[in-house]
Here is the input.
Amino acid sequence: MFWQKKKKVTPYDKTAKFPVIRSSICTGEQVAGFKDRESGQFTEVMLLRNEADLREFMETYAIEEDEIRREW
Here is the structure.
């Protein structure tokens, strides 16, 4: 529609980082972000409260579901 903003794809450096979802075992909280391949440093991007948030993360950064790693 006219009032909806068009989703903007934000690129990330696929050679230096990979997408990760960190999940808490105790609370079940999930955070999406990127982990540096060399240093292992995690950069938090957004909190995932439901499947819609996960889809938004994947659409924003043009990520396929099989590319995402999960960490606990």
Remarks:
- The mean pLDDT is 90.
